[in-house]
Amino acid sequence: MSGAVDVSVAGFYSAIEKSAGLLDVTASPEVVRPVLAAFEDELPQAVIAFRVATNAKHEGDFDARFTLPKEVDPYEVALSKGLMEKPEHPIGTLLSDLQQLCPIDSYGIDFGVTSGFKKIWVYFPAGEHETLERLTSLPSMPASLAENLDFFTRYGMADKVDVIGIDYRSRTMNAYLRAPAECYEQETVLAMHRDIGLPSPSEQMFNFCAKAFGIYTTHNWDSPDIERISYGVKTENPMAYFARLGTKIEHFVKSVPYGVDDPKMVYAAVTSSGEEYYKLQSYYRWRSVSRLNAAYIAARDKV
What we know:
Blueprint lengths: L8 H13 L7 H10 L9 E6 L9 E7 L4 H7 L10 H11 L4 E7 L3 E8 L8 H4 L7 H5 L1 H6 L6 E7 L4 E6 L8 H10 L7 H7 L4 E7 L7 E8 L11 H9 L8 E8 L4 E10 L5 H6 L7
Antiparallel strand pairs: 1-2, 1-10, 2-3, 3-4, 4-5, 5-6, 6-7, 7-8, 8-9, 9-10
Helix pairs in contact: 1-2
Organism: Streptomyces cupreus
Protein name: Prenyltransferase
Keywords: Prenyltransferase, Transferase
């Protein structure tokens, strides 16, 4: 179904409006349409997804995201089209530093339907993992990535970075890591949390992690600590993982018409404050041949 959806600006906007409405969120045309228009030529080839989070911080907003070819620099487009202001912060040079250091397969962007342009995703070529040793050589990288290099090395994740996420709105950076299978076992999950000073997960979180395929960590430029650790699961039935998500989000999961037969993504996160929350992603337009899918849907690394 998702392959036949309307990917014109008008059609995409209509789908955003209807999907956000399932959560009682009103999409702002003044916010959304300029983002879609800025990347209009790339929409016909894009993987497109909608995402909702269960925590209070994200309440009242609804995110959409789509992929872009490597020939399109999303940061330069965002600046030139007035989607964001150039930040006076190291995050403003992170993408260009990555472009000079690393081979890049493709990009993605993320925007809120009320808050506007948020993130850029950088996908490295399939099978060509980046290493934290190389990435931490960049002057624009958060110091906490290098500060925790021993942690990543100890758990076998330091040499297998698939994706970097750059969040310009919150001024954070995500490192998406291919982890050995034991990193999803309860004993190791608990040890990792203790090692980086995060609270112990709940039993629901342990059960979730047992089915996860990937891990990502969140870093900022103001602290040497890992701000958050998150785990990803692929499923066609997100509700199977939860006793309750809240009335609005349950309604969204059960009612969103797009990607009915396509995989859904669920991410579980634990913050430094001990908050556990979940992000659910449904695909408006799924494409099985995509670097995004290769990065997110890959089987666990057993090595």
